[in-house]
Amino acid sequence: MQTKIAVITPFYKGNKFVIQLLECIEKNAACTDKSQIQIEAVIVNDSPDTAVEIPEKEYSFKVRVINHAENGGIHRARVTGLLAAEADYILFLDQDDVVEDCFIKDQLAKIGDADVIVANAWMEYEPGKKRKLYKSSYEFKKVLNKEVYLKSHNMITSPGQCLIKKEAIPKEWCEKIMKVNGSDDLYLWLLMFASGKKFVLNDSVLYTHSFTGENLSADEEKMGNSSYSIKELVNGDRTILSKRDIEVLGKARVFGSKLRASRGINKIICALKNPDIVIPRAWWKARTVISGYFADK
Fold it and tell me: Residue 127, SS3?
């Protein structure tokens, strides 16, 4: 019986990335045993005025394009692809993402009984220059700590680092769609933590977050606003997120916004008013810096 993998890609006026995307998937298909693994690319076109240009060539995997009648945002595009996919595992790959040729093979070999496996990554901070995302084992293990996501930031830079069991993705994530782009993956991880899903780490560096100059994840203010919108989305409604986690998430994002806007003494006052956020952040930051220092030795 074949294991089915769906690579789901939200498309927004991204024809310049299509060839790179499909060749990346083709190389992964070439690394796998086709008698055991079946790969499908599901491209969800979220730009109704732009047609997806698929090269006229044969691929060793199925390519499917789903067109949205109107722009719905990246979360809705991912959910559209998820609901259409007949798969055991999901890889949410953005149109400009790059993964190593052995990504699918390596992740499948190491996921075991887990629901999500997270690979290490390269972060391209300017064209041609990159650094490893998690430089020490301590920093990488913060991926497993829900409190970091709530009080600080999303420890998984992109869902493109992850292979996810389709059946483990909570229905709530598919039903309550975020309108503010940027943090639908944070919302997914928090829902999975809340429902007791198992995360494991893969030390292999298998994903590259490419620098395009347009990366939303690099804009702290927009990402903070998107994260806060999770609270607005679920507040007062039935959710598997605990009331405590919703409040902590909201408080931390409001604090982050105020801190960025503050100057001089006002920044200090802002920090002193929020010790429950500042102290763990400072502790995590200090340990990350120290562990990274010794990892470089």
Answer: coil
Contacts of 14 (CB under 8 A, 6+ apart): 95, 96
User: How far is it, in rounded angstroms, from Cα 39 to Cα 27?
Assistant: 11
Longest dimension (CA), the chain: 64
The helix (run of H) or strand (run of E) holding residue 63 is strand 62-67
Confidence of residue 297 (pLDDT cuts 50, 70, 90): low
CA 209 to chain centre: 11
| pLDDT surpassing 60 at residue 13 | yes
How deeply is 132 buried, as exposed, middle or buried, from its count of CB atoms within 10 A (0-12, 13-18, 19+)? middle
- Cite the beta strand spans of 85-237 per DSSP E: 89-92, 98-99, 116-126, 129-132, 162-165, 199-209
Q: Which two tokens stand for residue 243?
A: 């009331």
Q: What amino acid occupies position 153?
A: H
| Inter-residue contact 217 to 223 (CB < 8 Å) | yes
89-92 and 129-132 as β-strands: parallel, antiparallel, unpaired? unpaired
What pLDDT does 221 receive? Answer: 85
CA angle in degrees (0–180, nearest 5) for 12-83-194 = 100
Q: What are phi and psi of 33, to 5 degrees?
A: -85, 110
Instruction: State pLDDT tens for residues 78-111.
Output: 999 999 999 999 999 999 999 999 999 999 999 9
Q: For the residues 174-202, what does the mean pLDDT come to?
A: 96
Strand-pairing partners, residue 99, are: 207
Residues 6+ apart with CB under 8 A from 290: none
